[in-house]
Amino acid sequence: MDGSVEEMAAGLLFHAPAKPPNLLNPVVLAYIGDAVFELMVRQYLVSLPNHKSHHLHKEATLFVSAKAQKSLLDKWQPLLSEEEADIVRRGRNTKSGTPPKNADPGDYRHATALECLVGYLYYTKQNARLRQLMAVAFENRI
Questions:
Q1: Of these four, 17, 63, 87, 134, which has the most CB atoms within 10 Å of its CB?
Q2: Which of 70, 50, 54, 75 lies closest to 134, judged by CA?
Q3: Of residues 19 and 100, which shows the higher confidence score?
Q4: 98 and 80 Cβ atoms separated by less than 8 Å
Q5: Tens digits of per-residue pLDDT, 109-125?
Q6: CA distance 70 to 64
Q7: Active-site residue, 34 included
Q8: Percent helix, strand and coil across the chain, each rounded to 5?
Q9: pLDDT confidence of residue 128
């Protein structure tokens, strides 16, 4: 396989958003951020030795639940720049719909904030920063 990780990650962006990322509704950033976050989690899990589908799904839920994302955002918070913290605030304060029945509303708002940040970093092509933050998510998991 030719190409660096940056080239491959940059290749994921087929269609730029209709507006600059900083002008997108936080719900829209969270929408794409949810997909990017899940893709990064799945790529990480596939990089590990156990590829049984049940195991992959079980491990993925340790990252993608509202509670897990809230906990991860708490870890990320001290590492965020002012710009990133502002994006997180926008995501947390937005009306993003009704949380799932099994999710705490506060956790759900924080999960939306995390996804908003991931979407923002993705659309602004800050792949190195996104990898840096995701490394925090994956530390102590091996």
A1: 87
A2: 75
A3: 19
A4: no
A5: 999 999 999 999 999 99
A6: 10
A7: yes
A8: 70, 0, 30
A9: 95
